[in-house]
Amino acid sequence: KKGIPPPSPFTNAYSKNNNNRRMSRCFSFASLRDRCLESTFKKSGLRLTTTGLGDDTVMQCWVPKLRQDSKPNLLLIHGFGPNAMWHWADIVARMTRHLNVYVPYLVFFGESYTTRPARSEGFQAQCLMRLMEAHSVTSSLSVVGLSYGGFVA
């Protein structure tokens, strides 16, 4: 895709050709839960996007399939540990009824990565704001962060 650098060797995309990894995903509780949660997010009206931010930084984000200008915007920032789907799955279906919900994977989570040396909460926050701008979310935006996501918020 234009503007998106190749995957980092530290992302799942790099190891997809590894047969042992594919086989272990068949029997992994975490992989099974990820597939179920992915279905939950899709049924809630979200789709997974990958966005290049133009500086060798790429971010994944669950975004509304159809954004409605009449709904307020909400950014849910996950904490350290489990991925964004695991943190927000219990509320995403209820929230998407009333809000345009955005659920990003912070840099170095999911398939989000950078080749830049920055590693601070401030850098994560800058990346999130650039991601929201890339998705044309420039009006008011409410932000909720869990644990580490709270520091980033």
TrEMBL record:
Domain of life: Eukaryota
Protein name as annotated: AB hydrolase-1 domain-containing protein
PANTHER family per the UniProt record, alphabetical: ALPHA_BETA-HYDROLASES SUPERFAMILY PROTEIN, SI:DKEY-122A22.2
Transmembrane segments: none
Organism: Opuntia streptacantha (Prickly pear cactus)
Signal peptide: none
SUPFAM superfamilies xrefs: alpha/beta-Hydrolases
